[in-house]
């Protein structure tokens, strides 16, 4: 009994942890230090966004968590386990949907499960469930060219979730969409990801998107990216508002001003 109590009293490892992580790229043109001693944690079910000037290393940081790049120094862990390569525990959704035009929507959603050689009967059930949840239930046997940009991104989200990752990395997932679609899809994506209990790391250039969609916003300095500051996005009134509701809250404008100042944007010329 006491052993059980002791065990449950142990603090849980954060879902994602970066400790003192630096990354240098080496090319024929020389060396680029992209990230410098980044320490960051994302808890289970937490949504965190990364903002910062172009080239400050946001996508590089996601690549480290995805196991696509090894850090030059420091360590990246997911659920306490060092990341040593891509893992099914981490899903990645990009700006481009990369749907295969010759596969139906359902077959596109099954792609990751096929690559990971999962039980396809179960994956198919899960894909159908997720496509319904993402509002794409009526389009299972359609082809990507028959869908709008927002619908294609919903399929990309379902495809990312079919393989049941605990962590979802979103790299500018809506930047190819028009502004109205962007607002609507942010609500839907957050709803699906929260209901699935995922931990999320979002890279965006859109300050409003960061405030509305995530619990914490991390601001990176200019290259080499260091953590400059971070802010919790709390809204009064109990239950967390949806992204669209958050935009109408008075706190939204306060956070926007603060983050704009932190970004220290200068227009060239
Ligand atoms: N494969 C690579 N080889 C060499 N340098 C690279 C490579 N990938 C990125 N870089 C450089 O590392 C720095 C960080 O790039 P990264 O794409 O992570 O920044 P970012 O903040 O995501 O940029 P953006 O907001 O423009 O997408 C940049 O100076 C970039 O040119």
TrEMBL record:
It comes from the Bacteria. The keyword Cell membrane applies. Keywords: ATP-binding, Cell membrane, Membrane, Nucleotide-binding, Transport. CDD domains: ABC_NrtD_SsuB_transporters (cd03293). InterPro entries: AAA+_ATPase (IPR003593), ABC_transporter-like_ATP-bd (IPR003439), ABC_transporter-like_CS (IPR017871), ABC_transporter_ATP-bind (IPR050166), P-loop_NTPase (IPR027417). Belongs to the ABC transporter superfamily. This is ATP-binding cassette domain-containing protein. It comes from Ramlibacter pinisoli.
């Amino acid at each position: 009994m006491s052993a059980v109590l002791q065990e449950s009293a142990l603090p849980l490892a954060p879902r994602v942890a970066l400790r003192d992580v630096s990354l240098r790229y080496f090319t024929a043109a020389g060396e680029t230090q992209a990230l410098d001693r980044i320490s960051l944690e994302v808890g289970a079910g937490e949504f965190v966004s990364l903002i910062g000037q172009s080239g400050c290393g946001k996508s590089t940081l996601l690549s480290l968590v995805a196991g696509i790049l090894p850090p030059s120094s420091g360590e990246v862990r997911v659920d306490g386990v060092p990341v040593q390569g891509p893992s099914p525990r981490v899903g990645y959704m990009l700006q481009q949907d990369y749907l295969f035009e010759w596969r139906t929507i359902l077959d596109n959603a099954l792609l990751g499960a096929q690559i990971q050689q999962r039980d396809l009967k179960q994956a198919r059930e899960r894909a159908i469930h997720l496509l319904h949840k993402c509002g794409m239930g009526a389009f299972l046997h359609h082809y990507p060219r028959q869908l709008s940009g927002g619908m294609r991104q919903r399929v990309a989200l379902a495809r990312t979730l079919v393989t049941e990752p605990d962590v979802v990395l979103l790299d500018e997932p809506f930047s190819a969409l028009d502004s109205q679609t962007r607002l609507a899809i942010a609500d839907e994506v957050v709803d699906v990801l929260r209901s699935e209990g995922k931990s999320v790391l979002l890279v965006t250039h859109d300050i409003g998107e960061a405030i509305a969609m995530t619990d914490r916003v991390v601001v990176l300095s200019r290259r080499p990216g260091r953590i400059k500051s971070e802010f919790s996005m709390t809204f009064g009134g109990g239950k967390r508002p949806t992204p669209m509701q958050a935009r109408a809250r008075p706190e939204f404008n306060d956070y926007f001003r603060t983050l704009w100042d932190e970004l220290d944007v200068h227009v060239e010329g």
